[in-house]
Amino acid sequence: MVCQITFSSPEYDEAVALRYEVLRKPLGLEYTTEQLAAEWNQIHIAAFDASGKMVGYLNLTPVSDTEIKMRQVAVAPEMQGKGVGAAMVAYSEKLARELNYKEITLHARINAVPFYLKLQYDIVGDEFEEVTIPHFKMRKATNS
Questions:
Q1: Domain 2-104, CATH homologous superfamily name and number
Q2: Contact (Cβ atoms closer than 8 angstroms) between residue 125 and residue 106
Q3: Nearest-angstrom CA–CA distance, 95 and 45
Q4: What does the alpha-carbon distance between residue 43 and residue 39 come to, in Å, rounded to a whole number?
Q5: pLDDT tens, 42-70?
């Protein structure tokens, strides 16, 4: 099941823990209070398994009237490769269309680029470093 969750809820706290384990801990990084506080007005999407355990998360952050940025995509290691990420991306694309955004952008870690290419995202520009590792900016029109 994929659905929206509320900032500062128990589900949001669970999402922060999942994000830390998948995205930050391997890099030796922490979330700051300021980073998390800045998410109060963003869209939080989570995936749950049949038992109700959170197995995935992604964030949508409005950039402009036409662009929304997908951030902090994390899938529990034991669920990677099982369609959880693709289901969350599909949900976020549908929601972005409903909210009248024209494109979704994201910064993909180099190892995630093939995943997004398979979902018809395009690479925009050259490789760059973010949170100490290589990334590519990617985009997709919401009408595709």
A1: Gcn5-related N-acetyltransferase (GNAT) (3.40.630.30)
A2: no
A3: 10
A4: 8
A5: 999 999 999 999 999 999 999 999 999 99
Q: Tell me the pTM.
A: 0.92
**For the chain, which residues make up each domain, given as ranges?**
2-104
Phi and psi torsions of 96, nearest 5°? -60, -40
CA-atom Rg of the chain in angstroms: 14
Q: How many residues does the chain have?
A: 144
Q: Pick from 66, 116, 114: which is nearest to 88 by CA? A: 116
- Cα-Cα-Cα-Cα dihedral sign, residues 83, 99, 69, 122: positive
What backbone torsions phi and psi does residue 138 show, to the nearest 5 degrees?
-135, 160
Give strand pairing partners of 104: 68, 140
Where do we find the tokens 């050259």?
A: 126
Each residue's pLDDT tens digit, 58-108: 999 999 999 999 999 999 999 999 999 999 999 999 999 999 999 999 999
Tell me which DSSP letter residue 102 carries. S
Asked if residues 49 and 107 have their Cβ atoms less than 8 Å apart, the reply is: no
Task: Let me know if 107 is exposed, middle or buried by CB neighbors in 10 A (0-12, 13-18, 19+).
Answer: middle
Dihedrals phi, psi of 18, to nearest 5 degrees: -65, -45
